[in-house]
């Protein structure tokens, strides 16, 4: 946090409240932490998050895009296609919506930073987790493309694949039947 105001978004209000409480306990510099309970895969939610940020802090300096769900796991021909598309909508389009919404602000300021969490799906094939892998690889290429478009505005866009993190997604993966996704 180091002196930053923060807006957190997520679909689970209880987890958002817990995250805010945890961060507030770490934050001894008097900065604020706002929460927004919304599904980033829904068009228009990104603009609502941006509006809340600007109303609360009158500025927007850094976007950290960390939306991610695995979606269905298993052989492509056996998975529910609607769930596959839902994961892609969250992982790819949710991030795109936020980037698109924040770029006009960054362009006007001629400065900004976007950090996209891409996940392991962008670094290697993930058999039996195809929606996650394809959506994360897509968002990396999207970020590379947009970074080239906005380079004259002093806007930095980077994708980061931090490796396995102790999250609900890791718990979900560890709980799945190895026959569905492979032992590795």
Quick structural overview:
This protein has 184 residues and is α/β, with parallel strands linked by helices.
Describe the protein's architecture and organization.
- The chain is of the alpha/beta class.
- It has six helices and five strands.
- The strands form two sheets. A three-stranded parallel beta sheet has the order 3-4-5, covered by helices on one side. It has a two-stranded parallel ribbon with strand order 1-2.
- Strand 1 (6-10), helix 1 (13-26) and strand 2 form a beta-alpha-beta unit.
- The termini are far apart.
The number of helical runs is 6
Structural class: alpha/beta
Largest sheet: 3 strands, parallel
Q: Give the SSE order as H and E letters.
A: EHEHEHEHEHH
Q: What's the helical proportion of residues?
A: 40-55%
- Gyration radius from CA atoms, angstroms: 17 Å
